[in-house]
Amino acid sequence: MADFDVIVVGSGMSGGWVAKEMCERGMKTLVLERGKDIDPAEDYSDMLDPWDKKFLDRVSPDEAARDYARQKDVYVFFESTKHLWVKDSDHPYETAEGTDYEWYRGYHVGGRSLLWARMSYRFSDHDFNANKVDGVGVDWPIRYADLKPWYDKVEKFAGVSGNNDDLGQLPNGVFLPPFELDCAAKELQAKIAENFDDRQLIAGRVANLSRTTPEQEALGRGPCQARYHCFRGCSYGAYFSSNSATLPAARQTGNLTLKPDSIVHSVIYDPKAKRATGVRVIDRLTKEMRIYTAKVVFLNASAINTAAILLQSANEDIPNGLANSSDQVGRNLMDHVAGARASAIVDGLDDRYVYGRYPGQGYIPRYRNYPDYDQDYKRGFAFQVYTGRGSWTGNRLGVGEQFKADNRKPGPWTVTLDAYAEVLPNPNNRITLSTTQKDKWGIPLPVMDARMGPNEWALLRAASKDAEDILTKGGFSNISMSEVQPTKPGNRIHEMGTARMGRDPKTSVLNKWNQAWDVENIFITDGAAMTSSAIQNPSITYMALSARAAHHAADLIEQGVL
Amino acid sequence: MDKLMMQRRDAIKSLLAISAASALAACTGKTEGGEAKPAASASLKYASEGNFLNAYEMALVAALAQTIIPKTDTAGAIEAGVPAAIQGLASEWGDDNFRKYTRAGLLALDKYFKSVGGQAFADQSEKQRESLLSKYDADVFGGKVKDDFYRNFKSTVATAYYMSEPGASEELIYEAVPGDWKGCVPFSEIGRTWAT
User: Fold this and answer.
1) pLDDT exceeds 80 at position B14
2) For A4-116+230-337+426-451+494-558, CATH number?
3) CB contact under 8 A, B193 and A392
4) What ranges do the domains of chain A cover?
């Protein structure tokens, strides 16, 4: 008799959803989290005023270099938030020669759902068709219609604020009222509408509650207070995280067991039954090894760790790793790619300002290679649009009363278009396990071997040109262009693809239910499952896949199949 | 929550106490125990337990900071605790490189202002400080003089000031919990730059 109906490895964005759905279906569910538990009173820094922040909220150079050699470059890495990012010194990884990989992580209950940028855009059929159309990668085994009801479900529960913009490439959803674009974004929106038929600026769809539903209130969630402390954790529960939403919902059922400090070493596999029987867990603090058993195992450890667990589960019966008869586990590692930016000043708005701090941003959805494939590169790009009015700065001429007076007046309005482009699935971009190096828990280090390729370069070059064109035609002043330079793999913190879904067990790891072809009681619904990256920020898709797969697995458990 | 507020108030009080001491040092260039001297070189010697910058250096820090951000109808840098924040960075936060860089940068400024002003910057009149620093600042920002230390120092002074309670909530405007987001309102309704 198994200890649990379901084991969920990972408590982040996708694991939280599996836990919620399984618990609500009456399944005894064990969630294993490798990191520490989170206590909002202790770990959230959203109640600090600026003057309460130690050392101007900067992490000391010694400590940053010693413990956070990678994480220190994250855009929300501060003295008061550093504990939400891993110490690289405790969690090293390797990169193949001639490559680099930026792996940004938070190991704690809730994982990166506590830290994400909250942009929530559905994939469209244009995205689900992409691999099939141009023959790169394998065909997704699902289409938009398969996922639509699940997108509806997760948006309604999570709370996504935005507009239904009626765009084929970016389907409508179940949205709370949008957060208003600021003056500069509205100006850009109007100029784009004036000058282009094929593209538009929309209000970002963001998982912050512009308003609450009774369901959200019952979980203790309140509306967004426009503080923009999201990356600090939110005491109001006003943005979606496992901590604010899915785990509390799971807990309410009485079916949840959550064990922090539990590092999954491997999945236990019964070669005769071709089933997983449970997992081996190392206690993070005592290093003691424990075993938990369950009818079904969900891997939601994030794309790299999920693949690493499968590879680490190899034994003489399955020398290539678990669920890996296709040899696709660890391959097709994707991210998104940025690295083409254009900025400009927006004149004529000096008498306008904002109240509060915008939790979102503008968005220009993909328009190239849509609706037709007519470019000499594959796929497309979108623009994240950052707008705002300049703040105080010490980096300006003058001292004394004049300096104070100058800073009392806000700076110019600016707009920045930041290209976000699709990364192609490439089997040579992969993670493997180190044959020589282990972490302090005795687990082999992941080795990343990934590069941006010619198509990613081509997309960014095209995006750079387009961004300049948009700003020039809009009549904006002081246009400045970044040099086109693709971000390193991992930089966008959207690692995906290492156990992809597909239609054929020979070329994919998971079937259309996110179920491992080789081991029918293993499901994977984190970024590893992604067959292509599209352009959209992926979390809402992980959530929809997770809810869908959880219900399928629950059906199979109830039917006695699993 | 009440306890947090109390701790916050206490912290501010102690910060003000420190900055008052710095202000005193800035006025006299002296410290308890006699005449203060500049450190002989950019060595990493701590002035006293927990304090890297000595009284002479702190007097210069305070004088520079207060000249960049003087007291007007709102607090100046000293009243806002900027010198103490800079001492904290140098003493507790920075690594040896940062400490070396800070001391060397301050000594270079000290030397320069002595040479053009005839005496230590902290000992000069307010008027002379403003005139000499304005000129130097214009040279740096106009590209005539390259001094990255000064730029960084000024930037840190501004950050420490505008993150302080008087800098954020009196000189500028600060709302811990706006409650609502409005993307396009008349500037006159807000009146000044948001602190954050």
Assistant:
1) no
2) 3.50.50.60
3) yes
4) 4-116+230-337+426-451+494-558, 178-204+340-421+453-486
CA-based nearest residue to A158, from A143, A168, A173: A173
Q: CA B32, CA A365: separation in Å to the nearest integer?
A: 65
Dist. CA A557–CA A517, nearest whole Å: 17
**Beta-carbon separation of A50 and B172 below 8 A:** no
Q: Does A52 touch chain B (CB under 8 A)?
A: yes
CB contact under 8 A, A352 and B185: yes
Q: How confident is the model over A391-420, as pLDDT tens digits?
A: 999 999 999 999 999 999 999 999 999 999
The CA distance from A258 to B102, in Å, is 48
Q: What digits encode the pLDDT tens for the residues B97-153?
A: 999 999 999 999 999 999 999 999 999 999 999 999 999 999 999 999 999 999 999
β-strand partners of A418: A341, A384
Q: How many CB atoms lie within 10 A of CB A275?
A: 17
Report the chain B residue with the minimal C-alpha distance to residue A178: B181
What does residue A440 show for φ and ψ, rounded to 5 degrees? -75, -5
* Distance (Å, whole) CA A511 – CA A328: 13
Q: Which residues of A touch B165 (CB under 8 A)?
A: 49, 51
Rg (CA), chain A: 23
| Digit-coded pLDDT (tens) for B139-178 | 999 999 999 999 999 999 999 999 999 999 999 999 999 9
Amino acid, single-letter form, for residue B97: N
Q: How far apart are the first and last CA of chain B?
A: 22
- CA A345 to centroid of chain Cα atoms: 30
